[in-house]
Write a structure and sequence with these properties.
Number of domains: 1
Strand order of the largest sheet: 1-2
CATH superfamily: Amino acid/polyamine transporter I
Distance between the termini: 25 Å
CATH class: Mainly Alpha
Helix content: over 70%
Largest sheet: 2 strands, antiparallel
Order of helices and strands: HHHHHEEHHHHHHHHHHHHHHHHH
Strand content: under 5%
CATH topology: Amino acid/polyamine transporter I
Number of helices: 22
Number of strands: 2
Structural class: mainly alpha
Radius of gyration: 22 Å
Amino acid sequence: MKVHKVGLFSAIAIPVTSMVGSGWLFSAQLNAQLAGNYAFIAWVIAAFIAIIVGLCFAKLCALYPERGLNAKCVSLSHGKDFGMVFAFAIWFGLLAMIPTEAQATVQYLSPFVEFTTLYQGESLTWSGKIFAVIILGIYFIVNYFGIKLLAYVNNVSTIFKISIPTLTIIVLLVAHFDSTNLTLAVNDYAASSIKTALIGAGLVYAFNGFQVVASFASEIKNPTRNIPLAIIISVAATLVLYILLQFTFMTALPHDVAAKGWTSLNFSSPLVNLTILLGLNFLTVLLIADSIVSPSITGLTYLGSCSRMLYAMAEKGQMPHWIAKLCPVHHLSKRSLLLNFIIGIIILLNSASWASLMVITTAFNVLGYMGAPISLAVLGSKKTSTRLMTLFVFIVLSLLLTTLSIKDFWLSNLAITVMMVIYAILQFKQGGFNWYGLTFVIFLWLLMLVASSVILTIILAIIFFVIITSPQFINRLGHKVV
């Protein structure tokens, strides 16, 4: 059966489309609120994290160019029981972002829809949620016809998605530029505010799309070359865009608004509210249009990625095997796609707004990222340089997790623990579960306990990484590395 494969441009367009989603509509304001002028450094650090994790995935794709690799890489290196926690985290984290993108569109459109109230207070109304469900339906339809249609929509929309933010930057800089805004709150923030902004302002969330290209590994031409290139180029291009947007947003604000302090900003639709303040009506119209296109194309790309992840998990025996059935025409699992669509609707109906989902989904995504260096340390080169590189990435991600609030850390740990206990019980009934598979869950609770200490976090991360990537631990799991 011939599988349609896409080239480098599409491989770049897929992550770019995912990264220029709802993040660009909201993160400039949130970043200014949490980090002030340190916002620019925070963007660079978030992009650096995306690249180092992305290159781990790229190396794994070179070794195993398989569908949904980012969800099953740890299962390849450590077996399905230990790998389940990472597969669940990365799949659920990405899945939860799909309704988040639909929410972003509805939230931005809400001030301009007069026949009903879509957004009230700080949450979507039932009318808003129904509108968002219809948007999810469009994501489903586009994905239903496979990678060829998805890539076509992606390629066309990527040009639009890049051109609108670029035009926004140019017009705002020409319309109003006040560099004194950058000096107003210099003493109100410290360098420590950067770590708060990485997750809290949605910066890691904004760059999360870098990983979706790994889900399409088996559908990309020359993955050894094109996947790392796609990750580096897409993250670098998106970083430039986000930094320029941050600078433009902070300098284009009217001085009387900025003088109240970055923490006082409370725009529900930040860029649209700003263009209305400046009287830029034509740009307001374009931003409203882009608030539909940018989150929507990102959402449908995430849905395609999630369907491939769930398929990969089913293929490894971590999900019911009936999901792992490919459509012979479009070469994707329609069952997986439908299941993700239904779960996305459930998440949407039980959440309030974009911000309410963003932090917790980012926590799951970071947990999923941690599987990449762990897996590469076992499956990749045994050179000392590779081991040190993967250890470094794991330490960085461990430190990133400690920036979560204790409430969000506790909730994500609890969700992972409950899921793993349920999985362990089901596996035990079906033939057995290796209890070493719960090792990572124990690590997460210990990490939460030492989160206030950078030194203890680093020591714990090093000890844990060395243990779980050792041949002795792999043997304990009863797994034979292929």
